[in-house]
Amino acid sequence: MSSSKVILSGMRPTGFLHLGNYLGALQNWLELQEKHRCFFFVADWHALTTEYEAPGRLKENINEMVLDWLSSGIDPERSVIFRQSDVKEHAELYLLFSMFTPISWLERCPTFKEQIRELEGRELYTHGFLGYPLLQAADILIYRAEAVPVGEDQAPHVEMTREVARRFNHLYRRIFPEPETMLNEYPLVSGLDGRKMSKSYDNFISLSDEPDSIRQKVKMMVTDPGRVRKTDRGNPEVCTVYSFHRLTGGEDIDRVAGECREAERGCVHCKSLLAQNIIEFLAPVYSRRQELLKQEGYVESVLARGAEKARSAASRTLEEVKGAMGL
Prior knowledge:
Rossmann fold; 13 helices; three-stranded parallel beta sheet
């Protein structure tokens, strides 16, 4: 069997992406597209499961996110890049799956109760929110994906997809593979304040930030709370700035750590060096973004071409499914 696999992954369109998204997902996608047949999709229907009351920025967010994908090197000639809602076969397969999927499978999904708690005060007891893991199963299986790169929190969704595939294959006939969970191994990226980098915390560096903006943000970073003066010895292991040095490379990080411990390097100097390292690290992404911005309508053209390729694959699967179910 060939080592090349069909890979499926997607993101909810939340607008421009940040450094944590790049290190945590996009770099992995770049490696995958070199070896496998990849489908990367904008999960705009999934966005409505929690944002159905305020969809006003959805189109803008899609454009910004896909622009970041393309700027990072996701290649529409190597990978299929498309918008979920442009491929109606996802919805039809989701409907057909709902006919035989027990409600208990959805209710026991750990992310259902976790998100209800995290988004307390929001009206999330909707059919769409309860059923979104099944829509994810349709997203994956419509392309007969063999592996799905996810973070650990999404692993239960892939396992449910495997259960749906097994149940369909048992009830009707074998059409679907049971996709493997491809856990992303990536470092937790801290935000400017030491918490996880997140737009909800407003502690992020975005891929589209201007160099001057990056410098200003790095100046605000939290450092070793025990180092009050430049002459105090520091502990780089508890310093957010040093954690970024380790992620973005640049100057010898062992020397940076050593000079911090011996009070030979002050925090202002350390932040200045880090800002330059981040600017250089993201320079290829930033440069490509500026070039793509000059091409009016480019993102929409990429999504349109990708949707055509995706529909071709999805329609073949759907026809087999309908035939197996007597439709």
